Amino acid sequence: MPQYDVHLNPGLMRATVPMVVLVQSSLFDGYRRRVVVPLVLRSALPAGAKVAGTRMNPVFKIKGQTLVLHPLDTVSVRNDQLGPCVGNLADQGQVIADALDELLTRSWG
């Protein structure tokens, strides 16, 4: 599965998290799980939240929906729990990597 593929979320939270983006390197394709980051509907975020559009929470337009990357809810899922692939954000790979970098290494300030 290519890194930065966008998959539909078949889970219970699909009303507010309709998609996830696969961030795991293809070096680990042999494993039965994938690390994904939720793509949350911007409209589902609290009014006035200063999250969307920050370095850690970039905004993407996918299939007519405005979605916010939400690295704090990164999870590992079984391959068979991923919905169909509906796109790829490889052209935004550095933006996604920067968001993960913000979460993992830049949070100290």
What would you note in describing this structure?
There is one protein chain. This protein has 1 helix and 7 strands. The longest helix has 12 residues. The radius of gyration is 13 Å and the shape is globular. The N and C termini lie far apart (34 Å). 21% of the residues are buried. The model has no long low-confidence stretch (mean pLDDT 92).
DSSP strand tally: 7
N-to-C span: 34 Å
Radius of gyration: 13 Å
Shape: globular
Provide keyphrases for this structure.
109 residues, mainly beta, 7-stranded antiparallel beta sheet, 1 helix, 7 strands, globular
Summarize the entry for a quick read.
With 109 residues, this protein is mainly β. It contains 1 helix and 7 strands.
Describe the SSE topology.
Elements: E1 5-8, E2 19-22, E3 33-41, E4 59-62, E5 65-69, E6 75-78, E7 85-88, H1 93-104
Antiparallel strand pairs: 1-2, 1-7, 2-3, 3-5, 3-6, 4-5
